[in-house]
Amino acid sequence: MRVKLLVLVLITAVALVSCPQAWALGAEVDTGALVVTKLFRGIVNAATGWIEIPKHVSLTWQASGPGVGMTWGLVKGLGFAVARSVAGGYEIATFPMPIPEGYRPIMHPEYVLSDLPGSSQPSR
């Protein structure tokens, strides 16, 4: 476990040092913070994409009943889980580049549980 964490930290450090153009894009915007935010957003979304499955089962169950929740909610959850995990991997792979423009998130909401009532993270 420690070796995997050390490898991840070293890869991240090398990537940050090897992409100085990411920091030279704009003096008025803290591009370094946007790069790091995109990286961690990608890691979080890749790791938590599976949470879309119970989320959509629950939301569909509450809206339409248990039968629909366990069928259509499951299908929706699987689709969103794959999409969020792939988007997270894409953001990890492209974190030093301003893709999409301004390092905006690919998935909306930005994090899997951001759009639930009572969440502290506003959806964008």
Descriptive account of the structure:
The chain is mainly alpha-helical and 124 residues long. It has one domain. 61% of the residues lie in helices and 0% in strands. The chain contains four helices and no strands. Helix 2 crosses helix 4 and helix 3 packs antiparallel against helix 4. The radius of gyration is 17 Å and the shape is elongated. The relative contact order is 0.15. The mean pLDDT is 82.
Q: Which features would summarize this protein structure in a list?
A:
124 residues; mainly alpha; 4 helices; 0% strand; elongated
Set out the fold topology.
Elements: H1 2-18, H2 31-48, H3 52-64, H4 66-93
Helix pairs in contact: 2-4, 3-4
